[in-house]
Amino acid sequence: MKNLKTYLGMFSAVLLVLALYSGCKKDGGYYEAVAKDATFNGTTYEYLKSKPGIFDSLIKVIDRMDLKATLNDSDVTLFAVTNPSFQLALNNLNRLRKQSDKDALFLANIDGVQLDTMTSYYIVKGKITTDSLALQDGRFLTGVRQNYPMHASVTRRSASGQVTAGPEVINFDNTKRSKFTRNWATATTASNNIKTQNGIVHVLNSDHIFGFDEFVKRLTFVPPPPNLMRTIGGKLTVLHESNGGATNGEGSLKVIDGDDHTKFLADLQGRLWMQFELNTPAVSNIYTLTSANDAPERDPRAWTYEGSNDGSTWTELDRVSNFFFEERYQQKVFLCKNTKPFKFYRIDITELRNSGTFQLAEWSINSPK
Description:
Structural class: alpha+beta
Radius of gyration: 28 Å
């Protein structure tokens, strides 16, 4: 009897080893989670509506931005943002507003232009499944509005202590119109591949903050102080002009005319500075640049901001590199630590995003706040 028990014990052990070996041989030593693609018998918009308590905020934004028809009729891929993502964004914004004794904002009353821009990041043209992102460097995607460039790639998470042994994950990137990945902002999602009648849905992780890293920044913009070019007056000169001179349709005077729908356009020729001589010296520790209407490759990327009292000897006040505008007609405000009054101020541009032709809608020199 004792021998029988011993034999049975040994037999059970052998079966266990064989089972483990068989399992390891079948999947390479780890369990590979298989993404189960789901199919929804309805449009992408109807899919969102079918999930109460999950996409309520996204639906509210889509309705307000008149994107319902796009999600019903067009072939699109939606990187769906859940309610917690909106809550995180609004909490961050209103915490800052409370510190300034400002009323809270909600999805129904925040700036519609900014909300439209950020919502459009998440809806891209075409049906983008995980398989279509299998290229090593991923794939650039095109937003449904303004052809905004996004990017997506596939990686695998670690599992059972092994790198890349787990389920597939999509990295969804806001490129910010930059070719440098270090400037991108990234959200992640499991490989959902939810197929609707007109598109694909991938649900972003709930810890993603709606708007990537731009939500608070876009909705707390503070206009710059008075423009010294107007309050004090003076004269603009540039290193080299566009064809036709300063007063032509895209001459240098367009960069200080107060209209962001006009622009100064000229060849960079390796370097281009714009200089303004004030009628009387004044302190400026703020200046602004506004992007032009098209061709982001012509935007300035690197420059110095300088002051002088004789137009010959210059003091560097600010230095900027690897800069980019996120969109057209966008005003950017730059601060520098200057307490000295200068009669001359100039911006000396040395590099553009990806062109030999420079353009800018507006430049202003501003007084201290």
